[in-house]
Every structure is written in structure tokens, then in C-alpha cells.
Amino acid sequence: MLKLKTLIAGLVLCLLSASAQAEILYKVTKEDQTIWVYGTLHAAKKDLIKLSETAENALKNSETVWFEVHPEKIQSAQALFMQHARRSEGKLSDTVDSETWQQLTTQVEKYGMNASALEQLNAWFAQIVIVSQAIAQSGYTAEGGSEGKLFELARNSDIPVKGLETVERQIDALRAAQSESGEGELLEQTLAEVEKIEEVFADIQKTWLEGDLDKLTHYLNQNLPPKALDELITKRNNEWITKLAKVNEADTVFVAVGAGHLGGQQGVLEQFEKQGADIQKM
User: Which domain holds residue 35?
Assistant: First the structure.
């Protein structure tokens, strides 16, 4: 089963109350090519993240900035998500007993939601909706995350922006990662763990702000079941590395992906190193 705290880690990776100029940034050098790799925090409180001068200069001097998905594509993806999220038959409440559904109804009302809005959704997407609402109520937003600041800087600097994958690919990964769990099991798990969101955030934020990639990688490896690790991390990392290998070797590029994708044996840094690249932590 994909634990809720792992889903939260995925959404945030894949946060303090004050501004912090901390980051996970690496310089990857392959012959004449330089690839800056920035491990992002997908959601944060307003004014938390401040890019370092090193990161700003690296981006401004790059030919292209790569994100997991082009930020503008994400902003217009709601209809596409709903196309995949809607149930083909039955109601979501039919997957659990009445007591569990009532508890879930009470919980989501705390986030200003009506449980009836979830009835036509598949459980994997309902879980994401609930977690996202809980995150937002706690003051964490995508606008406060790393990508928003990096995208704004790229746009203001007239640097071309591209996506390593499509929104459809991310949806496929989320669905595949959840496929081993029954729908009722997912809802029961959501109910049991959703109130721990701020505690999980505290662990993730502290690790990210310390720039401790090894600890962050260990956290994900401990909490992601093998199938979810393969679908959310390994397969996508492999696809990204293949795509980046086709970039002009003389180009300097800036790659911004969730920090959880960087470390470990299947991480993008390890894969660059296997290609003979020199890796330098900034």
C-alpha cells in the first residue's frame, strides 16, 4: 500500500514559517556540457523559499530550463485530471462501510469540502484531493514552492522552459503506484493518517532545508513500497535521463525536479555519474 505520508512526500518533494535560503543544488559536468540539477520542494508557505545567488545565476546562464512538467501545462490540466479521475461505475462510498464513510465526511468538512463531491471519483484521486486540501489549509501552496519561483525567474530572464514529461504521464504514474491497494483500503488509510500531515511536513521541511539529500532519499526508500518506488521514481528518472541525453552537448541547462528524484542508486545524479559526469554539490 502507498502510505499517505509517502503521498505527501511526493506532493511536496514528490517548510518553515520564515524565509529560508536553503536548497539542494548540484553542478553536473559532462565534457563541454553543464547541467544544473535543482531538487525542488513542490509546496511551501508563502515567502519561505528564497533562491540563492548561485541558483539564480545558474538559471540565468542556461540555454533551457527543464521542469518535470511545463508549469503552464499543469495550470490547465484540471479537465484532464478529471477525465481520468471519474469513476466508470458505482459510488466511492460503496467501497467502505457506512461508519468509515461518515468519519471521512466529518474529516473533509474540516477542510471546507462536501464528501458528496468525492462520490464520483476513483479512490486514488480522492486521496490526492483530500491531502491537497489539508495541505492548503495548513498554509502550504504550490505558488510558494520552488517551481513557481524558478519559473518566474526563467520567464523574466527570457529563458526557454520545457517539460521532461506530460501531465498524462504523471497521472499514469500516480494511478499505477496506487494499483495494488483496494479502494476501501485507500480511504481507510487516508482517514487514519490525514491528521498527521503537519507532522510529516515538519520532517520533510527540516531535511530539505538542511540540504540533506541522503536523509531525504532514505526517508522515501523506507516509506515507498517497491512498486510505488518503481512507478513514481525509477521509471520516470530513466525517461528523463534518456530525454536529457538528447540535449545539445554544448548547451548549459537547468533541471528542476522534485528532490526525491535526485538521490539513491536509481536517482538522476547516480545515473549522470554512470555516464562519466562529474557531480559537485553546491
Answer: 4-78+124-281
